[in-house]
Amino acid sequence: xxxxxxxxxxxxxxxxxxxxxxxxxxxxxxxxxxxxxxxxxxxxxxxxxxxxxxxxxxxxxxxxxxxxxxxxxxxxxxxxxxxxxxxxxxxxxxxxxxxxxxxxxxxxxxxxxxxxxxxxxxxxxxxxxxxxxxxxxxxxxxxxxxxxxxxxxxxxxxxxxxxxxxxxxxxxxxxxxxxxxxxxxxxxxxxxxxxxxxxxxxxxxxxxxxxxxxxxxxxxxxxxxxxxxxxxxxxxxxxxxxxxxxxxxxxxxxxxxxxxxxxxxxxxxxxxxxxxxxxxxxxxxxxxxxxxxxxxxxxxxxxxxxxxxxxxxxxxxxxxxxxxxxxxxxxxxxxxxxxxxxxxxxxxxxxxxxxxxxxxxxxxxxxxxxxxxxxxxxxxxxxxxxxxxxxxxxxxxxxxxxxxxxxxxxxxxxxxxxxxxxxxxxxxxxxxxxxxxxxxxxxxxxxxxxxxxxxxxxxxxxxxxxxxxxx
Length: 471
Hints:
Elements: E1 3-8, E2 12-18, E3 24-31, E4 35-36, E5 42-44, H1 46-64, E6 71-75, E7 80-83, E8 93-94, H2 102-105, H3 112-119, H4 128-135, E9 141-144, H5 145-154, E10 158-160, H6 161-164, H7 179-184, E11 194-196, E12 204-205, E13 212-219, H8 220-227, E14 236-240, E15 244-249, E16 262-269, E17 272-281, H9 285-293, H10 302-307, E18 318-320, E19 338-340, H11 348-374, E20 380-384, H12 391-401, E21 404-407, H13 413-425, H14 432-435, E22 443-445, H15 451-470
Parallel strand pairs: 1-6, 6-13, 10-11, 14-20, 20-21
Antiparallel strand pairs: 1-2, 2-3, 4-5, 5-8, 7-9, 12-13, 14-15, 15-17, 16-17, 18-19, 21-22
C-alpha cells in the first residue's frame, strides 16, 4: 500500500507518494523563504511553513491519483516556533541555523561536560534546548517546530526519539527528558512534547483530504540515514543540502564521542533504540548560494565548468565554510567563514575551487573523527542531496577521504526514509529491511589522487580552520 511522505526542510517542503516498492508515484514541492541578519538571526514564517506542508501533500496526492494508507512527516531539526495559546504562530520561527542562543549557552559553559554526559551533545546554540530557553523572553510559548506542525495537523503534542535527541534536553541512555538538563536551561520537562518511537500511531489528520493516520516521524538527517540503509555500525552517509550533515550508524548501545561529535538516537523502533554519531557543516548549499549572490558564480551548475575537478594548488586559496559558525568538532558558534592565501592571481575559478574543496575538507574531518570513535575505517561514503549533482564536489570528497563515494539514486532520501517509518508505523512492513526499497548507486566516484597529496590537502585545511578557531 502507498504512503504519503513529507520532508519539511529549511528552504522547501517536499511531499512524495511512495509505493510499497519505493517507486515515487507523485511529487510536489513548495519553496520557503528564510530571513537572515548579521546578528546571527535566521528566521522563517511558521504559518507559511505549515501551509507548505499541507499544499505539498495535497499536490503530491493529486498528482499520484492513488489512495494512501498513512502519512509520515520529516522535520528540519533544531528549529523552534513561538505559539499563542490557540497554537497559532506568535512571531517568527527560529531556524536551526540561528546563532543568537549563544547568549544562553555562554553562561552555562561550566556545565558543558555534564550536559554532554547526559545528552551526548556538546553545549552549542545549534540545538533546540538553548533556542527554547532563549525564546522564552519573546512573545508566546516556545515549542519545537516538529511538535508544533504535528499538533496543528493532529491535535497531538508529540515528538519522536531521534528529533528529541537533538535538543540537549534528552537523556541519551533512557530516551526520556532529563530533569537535570531541562533545569539548567530553565525549562519544565512537563512542558515538552511526549517522546515516542519513530514508527507509531501519532494521531490522525484531515489536512490532506481524507482522514489519514500519521505513523512516521523523524528528523531529516536520521531519516536519510535510514533510507540509505546505513543500519550496521560504521555505515556512513552525508547529505549535502543547505548544510552538509554526516551521520554514522553506531549500533544499539548509547555512546559518547571522544572526538567532539554529537551522539544521538538514530531511531527507535518498538523497544529497540539505534544510535548514531553526527557532524555538520552548517553552510554547504547555503555557501554556494552565497557565492552566487556575490557574483562569483552565476549558479551552482557553474561550479563544475568554472573550477574543474583538480585540487587547489599549493599557492591557491583555501576556504573554511563557517558562514554560520563552526559545528563539530570545533563547536565555535561565533566563528566566521574565511578565505586564506588570496593573491592578485586569485580569480573566480580559484575562489569557487576553494569553496568546494573547503566543504569537502570539513566533511573529511568529520568522517575521520567518526573513524576514530568507532575504531574502524569508513570504507564507503553514501551521499545524497542537491549538491551531489556537482562532479567537482564528489571528486573532492573521494580524494580527501581516499575512499569511494556512492551517490544515492534519488535526491529525496529524507522523504524516502520517512516513508519507511510510516510503513512500519502503519503495520505495512515488519522490519527496516522490509520497509526500505533496495537501491544501487547512481554513480561511484573513486579517488583520483594519492594518499600523500590527500593528507597534505587535509593538513592545509586543518591549519586554516585552526587559525580561524584561534582568532
